[in-house]
Specification:
The chain is an alpha/beta fold. The protein contains seven helices and eight strands; from the N terminus they run βββαβααβαβαβαβα. Pfam families: DLH.
Amino acid sequence: MATSQCCNNPPTLDATSGKGTVVDNFGGLKTYIAGSFDASKPAIILISDIFGFDAPNPRALADKVAESGFYVVIPDFFYGDPMPPNNISQLPAWMQKHGPEKGYEDAKLVIQALKEKGVSSIGAAGFCWGAKVVVELAKSGDIKAGVLLHPAFVNVDDMKEVKVPISILGAEIDIVTPQEVVKQYEEILSGRPELQSFVKIFPGAEHGWTVRYEVTDKAAVEKANEAHKDMLDWFTKYVK
C-alpha cells in the first residue's frame, strides 16, 4: 500500500542534477544514464519512488554505482508526471494513474533496449513504489538479481515466486511495510534454500531513508550510505 509516509521528506526535483546525461528515448522512456556504455558491462536499473527520476539523491546514487563499473539507468516511469511534492491529498488520484503494474510493463521494454545494445547481465533496485516493479521482474526472471529498498505494494506471496537472488532492505520505522512484514518475507525466503536472499532491517531508519535525506545531515547520509553499500555489494556478487 501507499500511505502518507511515502510522501515524507519530498525532494526538490532538479532535471539538471547528476553527473550523467538524460536521453529522450530509452525503451520508450526518458531516462537518466550514468556511466559510459560498454556492452560487456553489467547494467543496473534504478526504479524510483513516487517522486520520479528528477530527484537529485537517486541520480547521485546512480553516479556512485556507475563508478563501480556498472551502466546505470533511471527511467522516467511517470512520463513527466511524478507525485507533486508536499501535496499528500493528491496521492490516491496520482496512484490511480501510475500503478506499478504499468511500471513493470515499461521496465520490460527498458530491459529489451539494454539487451538490444548487447548487455546480457542486468540487475534492478526499486525504492518504495519501484520495489514492486523489481519484485515482478524478479518473479519473471527478467533480471539477474534484485534489491528492494523500503518496499511498497510488495506482499508475502511475492516472496514465494521470486526466481533470482533478492535483497530486502527495510526500515525499523515504516508503516508502509512494517518490520514485522519484512520479517515474514525473511521467513519465507529462508525456507527456500535454493534461492540466495538477504534481509536487513535498519534500526532507527524511516521509510524512504535511502533516497530522501538531507545531504547536510551527516547521520542520515551515513545511514543511507550503509544501505547503498549493501545494494552495491549484492549487485557486485550476483550481476557483475
